[in-house]
Amino acid sequence: MSAWIDVCHIDDLQPDSGVCALVAGRQVAIFYLPRLHAVYAVGNFDPFSEANVLSRGMVGDLGGQPMLASPMYKQHFNLQTGICFEDATVSVPAYPARIENDRVAIQMPE
Amino acid sequence: MNTKQTLVVIGNGMVGQHFLTKLVETAAKDQFHIVTFCEEPRAAYDRVHLSEYFTGKTAEDLSLVSPGFFAEHGIEIHLGDRAASIDRQQKRVTSANGVVIAYDKLVLATGSYPFVPPVPGHDRAQCLVYRTIEDLEAIKAAAEKSKIGTVVGGGLLGLEAAKALTDLGLETHVVEFAPRLMAVQLDDGGGAMLRQKIQALGVKVHLNKNTSLIDDGEQCLHKMNFADGEVLETDLILFSAGIRPRDDIARACGLEVGPRGGIVIDNQCKTSDPDIYAIGECALWNGQIFGLVAPGYTMARTAAADLAGAEAGFTGADMSTKLKLMGVDVASIGDAHARTQGALVYTYQNGSSEIYKRLVVSQDKKQLLGAVLVGEASGYSTLLQYCLNGIELPENPDSLILPQRHDESVGLGPDALPASAQICSCHDVSKGQVCGAIEAGCTTMGQLKAETKAATGCGGCAALLKSVLDCELIKQGVEVSTDICEHFPHTRQDLYNLIMVEQIKTFDELLDKHGRGLGCEVCKQAVGSILASYWNDYILEKPHIGLQDTNDTYLANMQKDGTYSVVPRVTGGEITPDGLIALGQVAKKYGLYTKITGGQRVDLFGARVEQLPLIWQELIAAGFESGHAYGKSLRTVKSCVGSTWCRFGVDDSVGLAIELENRYKGLRAPHKIKFAVSGCTRECAEAQGKDIGVIATENGWNLYVCGNGGMKPRHADLFATNLDKETLVKYIDRVLIFYVRTAARLQRTSVWMENMEGGLDYLKAVILEDRLGLAEELEQQMQHVIATYQCEWKTTLQDAQKLKRFRHFVNSDQADDNVVFVEERGQVRPANAEERRHFKLIEEAA
Ligand SMILES: Cc1cc2nc3c(=O)[nH]c(=O)nc-3n(C[C@H](O)[C@H](O)[C@H](O)COP(=O)(O)OP(=O)(O)OC[C@H]3O[C@@H](n4cnc5c(N)ncnc54)[C@H](O)[C@@H]3O)c2cc1C
Ligand code: SF4
Ligand code: SF4
Known about the structure:
The structure holds two protein chains of two kinds.
Chain A: E1 4-9, E2 17-23, E3 26-33, E4 38-43, E5 45-46, E6 51-52, E7 58-62, E8 65-69, E9 76-78, E10 94-95, E11 97-100, E12 103-107
Chain B: E1 5-10, H1 14-23, E2 32-38, H2 59-62, H3 69-72, E3 76-79, E4 83-87, E5 92-95, E6 100-102, E7 105-108, E8 112-114, E9 127-129, H4 133-144, E10 148-152, H5 156-167, E11 171-175, H6 188-200, E12 204-206, E13 211-216, E14 222-226, E15 231-234, E16 236-239, E17 243-245, H7 248-252, E18 263-265, E19 276-278, E20 283-285, E21 288-289, H8 293-307, E22 321-325, E23 328-334, E24 344-350, E25 355-361, E26 368-374, H9 380-389, E27 422-424, E28 429-430, H10 431-439, H11 445-452, H12 462-475, H13 492-501, H14 507-514, H15 521-534, H16 542-545, H17 550-553, E29 557-558, E30 564-566, H18 577-589, E31 593-596, E32 602-607, H19 612-621, E33 634-639, H20 653-664, E34 673-678, E35 692-697, E36 700-705, E37 717-723, H21 725-742, H22 749-755, H23 759-767, H24 775-787, H25 792-797, H26 800-803, E38 821-824, E39 827-830, H27 833-845
Parallel strand pairs in B: 1-2, 1-7, 2-3, 7-19, 9-16, 10-11, 10-16, 11-12, 18-20, 33-34, 34-35
Antiparallel strand pairs in B: 4-5, 5-6, 8-17, 13-14, 14-15, 20-21, 22-23, 23-26, 24-25, 25-26, 27-28, 29-30, 30-32, 31-32, 35-36, 36-37, 38-39
Bound molecules: flavin-adenine dinucleotide and iron/sulfur cluster (2 copies).
């Protein structure tokens, strides 16, 4: 089990929206969904447009699954698994994320 | 070796072309080599909508021939060549250019020509007719030299021509021989009402006038002298005194023609020579000429079927018509003059709202025989269906023409129609065929039109077609889902109303009350836009941030590499040298790629998120403000230079454009909105390609609405003419808010209007005549939007909290290393994948 890496304060997050953090040299998009009391972390790189933009996408749910819509060409990704709703062969890395003592932390595979 | 027979078609007008399209759909296509002579310089075009040539349609727009049609089907067309004679012994046609073609079968589709009464002087200069595109060009040219124009003939076509003359800015007169207008279709009461309405529009109507001589005028080019001793001076005369079949070529080769003209045909559209057919306005069936396109099309189908060996017959046609003459609805159905034995007549006349309706019913009051509607013709489809299908009338037939209370509806639901009922008369599509297409999977008007061709002729049946579609879909249990997405069982329009009625201020509140789940980018953006249109709060307020697309969140336009472009507002496209220099300096300092946009502004590309506030700080200091290029909102008001500089300009288009842009800037809408203002009818600003277009005329401003460029261009429709500025602004206020309130998500004004039941006419009724009693409310809402305008960049720069978002990482000041530029033509552009790899290698090596 890899360690939790401290990323930022909860006030740095945007409710129902995303921010991008640099964690161990990787770009991570972090989303805070207050209605679910949950934070989600996925890779910031959009495999369709090949640009680092996913943190700037809109969030919500599709059929009850928390989702993120790419701001570039609007494909949807499952925030829990990183799998693309439109094409299940495409996915972005999804990282475990948590809030503790008002600090946001994520786990990253070695 | 060619074993094919030769089929020659003389005339490539509306009916000739329809015949060709029908024939190539049959097996007979392989049996014949087809040759057609087309006297006009261009292949068939839509004569029915000819007048639109004056309001912006081009010859290509009017064309009825799909590109490549003739080549694709191996049809040999001789453009600009008239068939001069037919030799029936040798079975040969010889053309004016000397082409000789031997035929096996021959089709005459020569149409008709405008009848010009042989009054002395009828052939003077500027005495014209109204039938071809060339005629219209001649009229346009003559109108430029004229002040007064006169139409001879107060029939359907004459009144349409009169409308064209008023549109061309002439003082217009109509001279009619009969004691009423539209003598063929209307009774005295209807004719009188029509006259009253048309005179109110400024056209002078002279009835019972028999022109006896045209000679030199004193003030004008001509003086028309009437038999009763009166005179009328005019610069231009348009003859529209009826049509005559073009039967000369048939007559010369000995085919049977009627005593008053017309090539005699039988039920198979065959002339007295079994190898020769005649169709359209040149043909005489049962002693009757049909001067409408629908019967011509039926003849075309009949002849094509007969040639293909299929069973078909022409057995007369219904001559009912509905049209809009100078903005006045006029309809005539069946036996309008009550000539049937024992017929009973009901009339309804409302002097104040100028409506006249007349029903002609059978003696037993069970069948509708005919009707006349003037001033209000919304009941046309229903009445026509009663008449054509012999549907039994309600107990009190007059309920069909009496004004209705709101809770009553006497419309004939599509269910009441038999399967054989004709929905589209232009293309002869029955209700049965429509239902078949729906069963086969058509679920939208677009699909249905493409599949059945219904409503693609004169378009008069569109509303009826839509109601059949809806009714059938509901019956099939197809849920006609108009929900915006899975989170709200509502349309965008419903959501708008809920927000308005319940005064809802946030997405969360709306979701709690009316939705489910978390929402998604579809409903969030739609609601974000509605909240912004209605309340006009700052869109980056905390509850609204999650509702904005990335462009709105960062108040800039995301480009393919994740950088943004910046577009400051340049109202009306007017910019000072200092402004240009400031833009140049900012672009240079931040290494931005610069390009001039189609909306007359400057776009600065390649800004990273963290640079946006710095760039805007400098732009605002130089006097710029947000251009809202990122929003679904008013974009630009393009203008030509107008009367200030242009030697043709008649008004200050730049001044008006700036005023309009400042008025509507920041208005959030279902989609982007573009305007343009031209200083004269030369239209250099291309206003007719915009959502709102304004063109200066000698007498004020002409307003055009619902045009657009882009993927599916649409010409804007002329909405109101010769307006003063105050009225113009009032109308625009109303149209825009009505659009904001009632359009679907991401619907441009063009599609919004086309999908609106009643279309342009309904929109006019709502905006110009205030049919819904909403005008004041719409204007007030616009006032609110204008009063609460803010430059979103100015507001953002004043808020340190908001500025925190403008960095790539929350926990680092580094920039995105995936954004790499290379140079091209002296400026930067995003590196492509290959170049980026190369760049990374160098970096790693270093
Ligand atoms: C302004 C206007 C508005 C109208 N509005 C309506 C309306 O609202 N509803 C409606 O139903 N109808 C309307 N009509 C009537 C409709 O346009 C005609 O019914 C229709 O065009 C008839 O088609 P056609 O093919 O018989 O004749 P046309 O369309 O006139 O075609 C005949 C063609 O044959 C050519 N031709 C003739 N002789 C020869 C020859 N010897 N060799 C080669 N070519 C030849 C002619 O030049 C012409 O191009 C309108 C007509 C006009 C002018
Ligand atoms: S539209 Fe008229 S006024 Fe404007 S530039 Fe063109 S010619 Fe001049
Ligand atoms: S036309 Fe296509 S490529 Fe050009 S700006 Fe529009 S979307 Fe982009």
